[in-house]
Amino acid sequence: MLSKCDVNFMKDNNYKSIFILLITLLLGTACISESMAAEDYPIIFATQIPIPSDFTTITSTFGNHIPDLQKVGRGGDLWIRYTDGSLKNLTLAAGYGNGGFQGSGSIAVRDPAVHWEGNRVIFSMVLDSTIEQYQWETYYWQLYEVTGLAKNETPLITKVKNQPQNYNNISPVYTIDDRIVFSSDRPRKNMSHLYPQLDEYESAEVVSGLWNLEAATGDLFMVTHSPSGDFTPIVDSFGRIIFTRWDHLQRDQQADADVLNATTSTFNWSDEGASAIATNDRSEVFPEPRTERADLLAGTDMRGHFFNHFFPWMVNADGSQLETLNHIGRHDLHGYFDKSLNKDLNLQEFTDVTSGRENQNPIDNFFQIQEDPLRPGYYIGIDAPEFDSHASGQIIELQMPPGMNPDLAHITYRTPRATQIITDSPGADHSGHYRDPLPLSNGQIVAAHTTITGGVENLGSRANPKAKYDFRLKYLNESNGFLVPGSPLTDGISKTVSYWDPDVRVTYSGLLWELYPVELRPHNRPVLAGQGLDYPEISAFDDAGVNLDEFKIWLKNNNLALLVSRNVTTRDVADKQQPFNLKVAASTTQTTGAPGKIYDISHLQFFQGDLIRGVGGVVSPGAGRRVLAQPLHDGVEQNPLSIGGPTGSVKLGTDGSMAILVPAQRALSWQLTDTNGVGVVRERNWLSFAPGEVRVCASCHGINTTDQAGSNTPTNTPQALVDLLKYWSAENNPACVGWIVRYFSRCRFGR
Fold first, then answer.
1. How many CB atoms sit inside 10 A of residue 579's CB?
2. Does the domain made of 37-249+307-519 have the CATH classification 1.10.472.10?
3. Is this prediction's pTM over 0.90?
């Protein structure tokens, strides 16, 4: 009889997966049926005072890092459930937390993660609460570690050393070298006057990205710079950091509302500096305007641009190789999105029904990602609406191990599609909403579940809140091909607490939410696969006479990264929403996928995410800044001059290649422009790069299988890279002193 995981392998219709299945069945390692399940392990989870609202509160999709009393009540704890069903309150046993009035010494807890050896857990905790009405205090989520987890041991909780103080640090995970990666709202370069970073949607507080800490030494650096936030990282069995990123690269809707309603909340600061001036300007330059700005779209061929989703991403712990999971994109996961221009008949609105893609199960978002311990490369998560359900919804699954082609991506609905929907009139297949799914090593799945299908609501009052949602951890069972809620993990954990919020005394008595489950078990440290350059780029370094290792050291010392493309005229065959008949101006290099207009392109223009958009008005600015796309200006002096191009751009090679030095640890985006500097094809995401990283994207929109002309990935040695390396060598080789020497020696030719 086939096990559940056997069936899932066969569903993929993927010969590689079937081969892996045969091997694992022979070895008996990767995929086992429930009747052959491994031993059970304890489960650690957190309890939380229910919070009825769902905008930037503890269980929201974004802004959930804010520790104010109205966002996260005090009184939750860290718990362990042993294999015999008994429970222990770990925080209380270690001397943290209390019942009754939540003043000094009160806590809230979240995000436990287990160490590789299975004997300690790192988590986030906020301490204390105000003891008097109207007393506003500042609190921060900080990282703690708990040991002594055996049933007969007394747990010990210690605060993680050298973490950012006076910032909120959440969702920690242990890396393969025992450092800690976590989300934080610490600003780039600790520029406190920019605090807090505001998201691109509601201008609400958001985490600035992922950070990497060596606790013993205090070595700390930014892994990702994310304008709208990176959430809930894990380290998968291949050593990759997998997380949810909020992708929202579009113009500021708050500023558009100001223009359309003649209000003046939003404005631009003159720069990111501490002495910047608040100006009356609120102009934006990238990407194209939103649909609501008919005034800006008038006289152009552009359609209004909307972009908003939470997608699975991956990155190495040093910040390198950041991209969507295996380069998966909207074409693989979404059901619909619009084209960019009106008059080009080659461009199409995208629908999953007409695309012919493998995946016929579209999703909107992918939250709370976990990897199945029995099936490496299988990721389970939640497709939830952005608001109104506490980030709970449908359980979904995606197979995407390293090297798997996104064209083969297939979303499996583990609960019915109806469970993604908020409705007060559910059908028979709506079993409620789910969050925090956890595949166990014995083949079972646990998740936080509620039978509620409608939107959030406070059924009580501010002083005596009663959240409509009632999350309990439950084992999930199979029924008619879907997961359904089974028996609860506990008999229910109740508490009676009160606290000032701080204006109103809040009193709650009843069951607590049960969230963030993890399995307390040892697991093997993965070995991260090495990533070197391919032959075309190695050939470019050889042609220029530049030592790659020495060049990377120079990049790192100057906080720079090198970006390279081989032929930007080639694009993935699925992308028919932006122009794809592209030709390098004044050259013979072009790639076309259909008859019709051919677009001349000459430059690739880069934009950096500057924190310069202010809120609250020029007269009395509010705290914090939103990222705004500005033409690249950091590090531009390191690149050859780009004659005739727009600000922040580099000229394309006649072979379609591109090479540029860019600032590391800074959100960047870009667009291909025509000879007049007008955007033709635009990047839709923000990306950041690690110091010293050499990043190659063979095509501007990476090719999964073939480009628009049916060809494979370009293999040319990028001439633009050769030219840049020769320029760099002439400018940075110590033997090349003075312009006369550079001109008459081989230095200028890249020795």
1. 22
2. no
3. yes
